[in-house]
Amino acid sequence: MQAIIPVNLPENSYNIAICAGSLNQLGTTLKPLNLGKKILLVSNPEIFNHYGETVINSLETALFQTATHTIPAGETYKTLDSIAKIYHTALENRLERSSTMVALGGGVVGDMTGFAAATWLRGINFVQVPTSLLAMVDAAIGGKTGVNHPQGKNLIGAFYQPRLVFIDPLVLKTLPVREFRAGMAEVIKYAIIWDQDLFTHLEEAPSLDNLSSLSAALLQRIITNSCQAKADVVGKDEKEAGLRAILNYGHTIGHAVESLTGYSVINHGEAVAIGMVAAGEIAVKLGMWTQEEAKRQNILIEKTGLPTKIPSNLATQAIIDTLATDKKVKAGKVRFILPTQIGKVTIIDNVSSELLFQVIEELK
Amino acid sequence: MQAIIPVNLPENSYNIAICAGSLNQLGTTLKPLNLGKKILLVSNPEIFNHYGETVINSLETALFQTATHTIPAGETYKTLDSIAKIYHTALENRLERSSTMVALGGGVVGDMTGFAAATWLRGINFVQVPTSLLAMVDAAIGGKTGVNHPQGKNLIGAFYQPRLVFIDPLVLKTLPVREFRAGMAEVIKYAIIWDQDLFTHLEEAPSLDNLSSLSAALLQRIITNSCQAKADVVGKDEKEAGLRAILNYGHTIGHAVESLTGYSVINHGEAVAIGMVAAGEIAVKLGMWTQEEAKRQNILIEKTGLPTKIPSNLATQAIIDTLATDKKVKAGKVRFILPTQIGKVTIIDNVSSELLFQVIEELK
Asked: Start and end of every 3-dehydroquinate synthase C-terminal domain (chains A, B) (predicted)?
């Protein structure tokens, strides 16, 4: 099973290649892309331990000169300091403008490697080899790169497109189940905002809460359809001028919950799951979405083993205050992405604080 | 006297507005550009002392909400740390994606503000108000933004276009004479690489070594023609894929000299002046350029009060070694921009180390 999904952009179009068991063909896949001689592979120690040898062998067999830089795993290392360390390795290995950085890892590694590639020598080549489900279906596609600011997630960054996104679904076998589920949150998001058909398939699956319960065909479908949804949206709005905002479904309250819990207690996918439940409830209360469809969404989220409740120790007002520092704020107004039916959402910026307060309270 | 020079790019075209005495009209000029409500003005203390009040009054009269961030003057502050401080002020003032950063200052302020704007919330609006001749004719145009790495100038950065470059030549009255001359180095560069006519005008001027010896008309002409040259080149090659490399005339050895003297003993324009003399000599020795025209170039450089000699305390081999870490290195080869006649240059990447060694030795 193999799929090539083009991401069509005004400049810098690229492909997403999805093929089970293809990791050892990375080098030959990159060879025709004119990526220079030198590759700096950026990863975290655990992922590198699992897949570093395969990747380096593949790159060196294809005659790339390869250097490696590892960053400790986790959102807490997603800082400007970590980027400075990548710069240091880039300098040591004399990377040139024609050289390439390859991100082998999850979203954190991908976001940071992309930002380092975007800003080293004012931009060198960049390839994404995502190893988490979340990164495969979301973070690796669309050119959002960056790091966190002590006071907010992803406040520092750049739009910078990879030359290729290379996905081998088999690497998910080493992914902890909690992270698998986090990725499924984004999959469900695509189903709600863009792909009713994917939603039905997820509903029909006997089980969704761990990788081994998925057939190879369903896994390939989940990744392919999700990547296609993201490619469709990004292709229509590269820099989040309009449509792309719908990808933030579940992310508004999600980001606030994630931020207030210090990016560690609750992971991104879990926060998005909670955020989707909240957004669904807001849509229902505004009379925009049926109770019944919202319930189907919530059942699917539960079936995946994801949380649907806001941690009760978070103060409701603190969540509302945090929303005001979100990047998505425009002219002081917080934007919400709200479903109108499964497969369709709309953008609203006049949700009242009272309604917001009520929904957050109810979900604790 | 007023000139509007369009910089035409595939995306993100913008204008350069040049008008003597226009600084107090900045606000009304920005108003129609859809730059949001909030402006973060970035400057250095001295420039801000001279022009801050005029600029802020102008912006606030046009109903912009204005905050200010100052960075100590000088290349030594052109660091990632200084950028982190701009981020901090941006956060404090809750800049949004639709907000704008305005750089009021020389090249260092412009490069840093541009990089901060390029990377805050993945890119917000950015306006250049250059106050040095060097920044007016070079740094502010073309979208090169960034900071220095401890081991090399401008190794960290991004291509990010301003929404407007706003030039009031009258602000040059507070520019130290040495910095005026540094700007003139880039003016001479444009004359050599692009504009034979400008070269003749400079030759005919009775004096060039300080601002007060220039007529208002000549100053306007110098700035306008230089901006036009840069706009022409950048419009044809936004991201330095080819033609734009010619703007690096004098910069190859220039950067090495600047870097080895710690970016302080010799300023950028002086380094470029020395680099142009060196490049001219290489071209002559390769039989590509006439001795006579090279001499005319060198006389013009001397007339401007700029240096034409490499500091004798710099080891020749150290200069050659430093060239290898330059961003312009491609597949290990150092590229040189060499004149073939006044107004025309070509790109060469096979200058031998022996020739290089000889030319550097001769220029000490």
From this structure: 183-329
